[in-house]
Write a structure and sequence with these properties.
The chain is mainly α. Helices cover 61% and strands 4% of the residues. The protein contains 21 helices and five strands. The chain has a three-stranded mixed β-sheet with strand order 1-2-5. It has a two-stranded antiparallel sheet with strand order 3-4. Helix 17 runs antiparallel to helix 20. The C terminus is likely disordered.
């Protein structure tokens, strides 16, 4: 609530003075309905938005699948019997020494880009590039599109970005040149950075009580999209058809323009109070509330500091804090996307394993809210980093190509546990890092950290797919060790639960010197939702 303000204003209408109540955005949302018909309708629209956007993030799991192969009958070079797993490092080396005509894939030519363009052996680097290029584009877009969102509006960036993603996904199904395919993946990745505005708008049109729930629902949509995509891939078994069905039908969401509001807070910050009031009136009308005698309070921006990214490294202790966070976010990006992309290496069924490693995100998204509030940010993050590390090492310890059902179940179970833990600590990190950094550089700090996670995501195809041809256990062993290192480093960072968040670099330094306690000695708890100028998710990409 704004301080030192007049709660009433006088407006002359028809020769009569009418008293209007002046309210902040949160107070307005309480009056128009914190979560009514309008907000629920918007959430359903965002569910439709999240489906095609999420599809394009993880669709390469199926589009670039390298299926098992077998020797052709009568081949004089290839004498191995039965299906041979493509990720078996020894068999991989043998196949690369064979003539193409002596073996064939177990799937038809149009099954994936690997089978259609024969992307094996020396050409396999093209698959890694196509996988990682999206995240590199996302990294660049993460700096450009949030800036455009701050300047021109969340909705104004969201719709064009979503449209380009849908169109590029559709065009991908028609290409016959892999480098054009890779270019389209790069454009899709760049535009993915605009999808963060879904989170921003979803959390800003509900009241404070529903804000965390509304934001968490976006992650549920992400998981639902993964499950639906798996079903489509299972029944289609054709990468071009999969690209079409995961893109073109969703062009219809462009018709929802008039039903998706612009960010009220952004309009207010820009001084466009009439437009902000129009959005609030639409919410009130849909929720059957009356706000005719109310008006919004103009904002006074008190955060005009000229602090820069360089301030994150002003002192040795701050530099260490920043370096630890960058490393941990890099590892989280490698782990989250790496475990997803390597689901097929767990020893079970391609589709079942992907569903299992995706569905664990649902309880993880629920528990992150509970644990960060009950146990603290530091404990929640560090315990789950260690859990993810040990789970990945456990996967590496199970021999590849096992026949025992017990070992297969153990490998899949450990993979699910690793995905559960990384989802939990990945989401907890958003809260923790936001509270560790000062308000004057918070958006810039989180922008750097998210860029680090996207670089990690871009590395994941090379780590998880490339290294398995050296040794099948190496990818999971490496990310397991990286998580254990990140967990040890994060023990050095301070807890932020119940601590007043710092506004300036000087506040950060004071908290560090005082062991994380409030300068006043009080245990003042500040919610992420109340942080001024945070706009954390505007620098975000969905997982």
């Amino acid at each position: 609530m704004d301080k030192d303000r007049d709660d009433k204003s006088q407006v002359e209408i028809g020769g009569h003075e009418i008293s209007k109540e002046r309210l902040s955005v949160d107070e307005f949302l309480d009056r128009v309905g914190q979560c009514g018909f309008y907000q629920i309708r918007t959430q359903l629209i965002f569910l439709l938005f999240m489906l095609p956007l999420t599809y394009q993030v993880m669709i390469m799991y199926f589009v670039a699948d390298n299926p098992p192969w077998f020797c052709k009958n009568g081949s004089k070079e290839c004498h191995m019997k039965g299906l041979i797993a493509s990720h078996d490092s020894k068999m991989f080396q043998k196949r690369c020494k064979l003539r193409q005509g002596s073996w064939e894939y177990s799937k038809p030519k149009n099954y994936s880009i690997v089978t259609e363009f024969n992307l094996v052996c020396q050409k396999e680097v093209i698959v890694y590039t196509a996988n990682s290029i999206l995240f590199l584009g996302w990294t660049v877009g993460g700096f450009v599109l949030p800036y455009l969102s701050d300047r021109f509006g969340r909705k104004t960036v969201l719709f064009p970005a979503a449209f380009v993603i849908i169109i590029c996904g559709f065009l991908s199904s028609f290409v016959h040149d892999m480098w054009i395919f890779i270019l389209l993946r790069l454009i899709i990745g760049f535009c993915q950075a605009g999808s963060v505005n879904i989170f921003v708008i979803a959390t800003e049109i509900v009241g404070p009580y529903y804000r965390s729930i509304s934001g968490t629902f976006i992650w549920f949509y992400f998981t639902c999209a993964l499950l639906l995509m798996t079903l489509k891939a299972y029944y289609l078994q054709n990468w071009r058809n999969l690209e079409i069905i995961c893109s073109l039908p969703f062009a219809v969401i462009m018709l929802s323009w008039r039903y998706v509001p612009e960010s009220v807070r952004w309009l207010r910050m820009k001084g466009r109070l009439d437009e902000a009031m129009q959005v609030l009136k639409e919410i009130a009308r849909a929720n059957k509330r009356d706000i005719s005698n109310m008006e919004i309070i103009p904002v006074e921006n008190n955060f005009n500091s000229k602090s820069t990214i360089a301030d994150l490294f002003r002192s040795p202790v701050l530099a260490l804090y920043t370096a630890i966070q960058i490393f941990a976010w890099l590892v989280s990006g490698i782990t989250f996307y790496g475990v997803s992309l390597a689901s097929s290496d767990l020893g079970g069924d391609l589709y079942v394993d992907f569903i299992l490693t995706s569905i664990v995100e649902i309880p993880a998204n629920i528990l992150v809210i509970i644990f960060t509030n009950k146990c603290g940010r530091r404990l929640t993050t560090v315990i789950n980093i260690f859990l993810a590390g040990f789970a990945c090492i456990g996967v590496a310890a199970v021999p590849s190509g096992v026949i025992s059902k017990g070992l297969k179940f153990a490998k899949v179970g450990l993979g699910m546990l690793g995905k559960f833990a990384v989802t939990l600590y990945f989401n907890a990190f958003y809260v923790w890092s936001a509270e560790l950094n000062a308000t004057v550089v918070r958006a810039q700090a989180v922008g750097i950290l998210i860029a680090a996670s996207r670089v990690g995501a871009a590395m994941s195809p090379f780590v998880m797919t490339g290294l398995k041809y050296v040794n099948a256990s190496l990818p999971f062993a490496l990310i397991g060790i990286l998580n254990l290192l990140a967990g040890c480093f994060c023990l050095y960072l301070r807890e932020t639960k119940g601590i007043e968040v710092p506004d300036t670099i000087e506040d950060c330094l004071k908290l560090l010197h005082q062991g994380g306690k409030n300068p006043s000695g009080e245990n003042k708890s500040v919610s992420i939702d109340s942080m001024p100028c945070l706009d954390l998710k505007s620098r975000l990409g969905s997982h």
